[in-house]
Recover the amino acids of this structure.
C-alpha cells in the first residue's frame, strides 16, 4: 500500500513566512515550531496574526516567540518554567531534584487518579521539552534525567520572573534586600554578605548555587532564626561552623526550628550527625544529604511526611512506618532488616549499601525481604552478603518486582553450584568493573555476551572454557 503526504498549501505558506521572519535564528524557529505543534491547523492563522503584531525590524525576536509560547501555558506550567530561572547559566539540571523542589514549593497538585505529585511534575517537564522551551540533556529508561534551558530563553524567563516578583537572583554581595519570597544566590558567599543584609522575613525559599568563602556560622546562627516561614532551604556544599557544634559534624539545631520546611538540601556539607530536634520538621518531604556519611544512629521516625531521603546512612536508621517514602538512598543491610517493609508501599527507589565500617553488623539479604515493594522501580544492592543461588531466582524477579525498571548489583555473589542448566548469559549496557567466574560454575553455558557500558572490564577471571564463548567484549 502506498501512502502519500497531503500538504496543506495554506499552512505551508504560513510556516514558510514565519521561518523567514525568524531571520535565521534557530532557537526562535524551534520554539515557534513547538508552539505550532500544539495548535490545530485552523489556529495557525491566529498565531501568525499574533506574531505580526509584535514584529520588530520586520523580524521575529526571541522575546516575542517566548511571550507567545509562555502565554499559551496553563498556570502550573508557567510556574514550572519560571522556576528554571533559579538555576545558573548553562547548568545541567537534575530533574529528580527539580521535581522535589517543585513539589515542595506547592506548585504541583496530585492528579486525583493514579498519578502522584512527582508524576505530575515530571509530566509538566516533559511538556516543556515537547514545546522546545526546555532541552533534554540525558535520558535513562525512557525518562529525562538531566535537562537544560537555553541561555536566551533563560534571560527572558528571568525578565518575566522579575516582572511578577517571582524570584530574586543574587549575583554579588552588594545586592539590595528584597521582599521577594524566593532568593537564589549565585555568587561567592561569606558571613559578611549574610550578616550585613536585611533579612526578608517573608522569604519562603532560599537556594544557594554559588561558592563558599570560609565557614558559615552567623548565617545559621542568626539569619535562619528570622526565616520562620521557609519551605525550601538548599545549602548544598556549604560548611557549618556554629558555636557549640563540631565543624563538619552535626546539623545546627536552629535549622531544625524551621518547622515549615518541605525541602532541606544539605548535600556535600560534611555532616555526620542529624540531631534529635530534626523531629520538629514534621512537614519535611525531601531531605537531601547526599555525599554525607552518618555513622551513628539516625532517628527519623517522626518525619511522617518524608518522601525522599538521600544520604549514606552507615549506622542504624530508624524511619518508622514511612508510608509516604518514595526514595531511600542508602541504608545498611542491618537497618533494612529491621524495617517493616509492608508499610513502604510507595517506595520507588531503594539503595542498600554496606561498607567495611559495618562489616560486623552485616545481615544476609534475600529477595523475600523485598516481596512487598510492588511499586519499586530502581533497586541498587551494594551488599556482598546478597547471593543469587540459581537461575530460578532471576526468572521470578518479575514476580517480586512487577514495576522494576533498573536493577544494579555491586559485589553480589552467584553461588558456584548455581545455574547448572544456564545456557546463555547476556549482560548488556552494564557498569561492570570486574567479573569472576569459578571453574565449576555454569557447566552448561554455551553463549556469554558482555557489552560493558564504560569500555572493557578492567578485571576478568573466567575459566578457559569460557574464552571462546565471549561475545561483545
Amino acid at each position: 500500500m502506498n501512502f502519500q503526504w497531503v500538504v496543506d498549501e495554506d499552512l505551508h505558506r504560513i510556516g514558510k513566512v514565519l521561518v523567514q521572519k525568524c531571520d535565521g535564528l534557530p532557537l526562535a524557529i524551534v520554539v515557534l515550531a513547538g508552539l505550532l505543534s500544539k495548535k490545530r491547523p485552523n489556529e495557525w492563522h491566529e498565531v501568525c496574526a499574533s506574531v505580526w503584531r509584535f514584529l520588530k525590524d520586520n523580524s521575529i525576536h526571541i522575546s516575542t516567540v517566548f511571550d507567545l509560547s509562555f502565554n499559551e501555558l496553563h498556570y502550573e506550567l508557567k510556574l514550572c518554567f519560571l522556576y528554571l530561572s533559579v538555576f545558573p547559566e548553562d547548568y545541567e539540571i537534575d530533574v529528580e531534584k527539580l521535581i522535589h523542589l517543585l513539589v515542595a514549593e506547592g506548585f504541583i497538585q496530585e492528579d486525583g487518579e493514579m498519578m502522584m505529585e512527582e508524576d505530575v511534575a515530571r509530566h509538566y517537564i516533559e511538556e516543556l521539552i515537547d514545546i522546545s522551551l526546555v532541552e533534554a540533556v540525558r535520558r535513562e529508561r525512557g525518562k529525562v534525567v538531566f535537562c537544560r534551558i537555553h541561555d536566551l530563553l533563560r534571560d527572558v524567563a528571568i525578565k518575566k520572573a522579575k516582572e511578577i516578583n517571582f524570584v530574586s537572583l543574587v549575583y554579588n554581595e552588594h545586592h539590595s534586600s528584597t521582599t521577594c519570597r524566593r532568593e537564589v544566590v549565585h555568587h561567592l558567599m561569606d558571613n559578611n554578605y549574610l550578616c550585613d543584609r536585611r533579612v526578608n522575613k517573608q522569604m519562603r525559599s532560599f537556594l544557594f548555587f554559588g561558592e563558599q568563602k570560609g565557614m558559615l556560622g552567623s548565617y545559621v546562627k542568626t539569619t535562619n532564626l528570622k526565616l520562620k516561614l521557609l519551605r525550601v532551604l538548599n545549602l548544598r556544599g556549604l560548611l557549618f561552623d556554629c558555636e557549640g557544634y563540631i565543624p563538619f559534624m552535626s546539623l545546627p539545631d536552629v535549622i531544625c526550628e524551621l518547622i515549615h520546611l518541605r525541602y532541606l538540601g544539605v548535600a556535600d556539607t560534611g555532616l555526620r550527625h542529624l540531631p534529635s530536634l530534626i523531629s520538629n520538621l514534621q512537614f519535611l518531604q525531601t531531605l537531601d544529604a547526599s555525599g554525607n556519611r552518618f555513622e551513628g544512629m539516625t532517628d527519623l521516625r517522626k518525619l511522617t511526611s518524608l518522601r525522599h531521603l538521600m544520604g549514606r546512612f552507615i549506622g542504624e536508621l530508624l524511619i518508622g512506618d514511612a508510608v509516604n517514602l518514595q526514595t531511600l538512598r542508602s541504608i545498611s543491610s542491618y537497618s533494612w532488616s529491621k524495617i517493616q517493609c509492608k508499610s513502604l508501599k510507595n517506595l520507588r527507589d531503594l539503595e542498600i549499601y554496606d561498607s567495611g565500617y559495618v562489616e560486623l553488623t552485616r545481615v544476609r539479604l534475600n529477595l523475600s525481604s523485598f516481596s512487598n515493594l510492588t511499586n519499586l522501580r530502581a533497586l541498587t544492592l551494594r551488599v556482598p552478603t546478597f547471593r543469587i543461588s540459581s537461575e530460578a531466582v532471576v526468572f521470578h524477579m518479575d514476580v517480586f518486582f512487577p514495576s522494576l525498571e533498573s536493577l544494579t548489583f555491586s559485589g553480589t555473589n552467584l553461588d558456584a553450584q548455581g545455574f547448572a542448566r544456564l545456557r546463555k548469559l547476556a549482560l548488556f549496557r552494564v557498569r561492570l568493573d570486574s567479573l569472576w567466574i569459578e571453574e565449576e560454575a555454569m557447566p552448561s553455558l554455551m553463549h556469554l555476551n558482555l557489552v560493558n557500558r564504560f569500555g572493557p572490564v578492567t578485571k576478568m577471571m573466567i575459566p578457559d572454557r569460557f574464552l571462546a564463548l565471549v561475545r561483545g567484549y
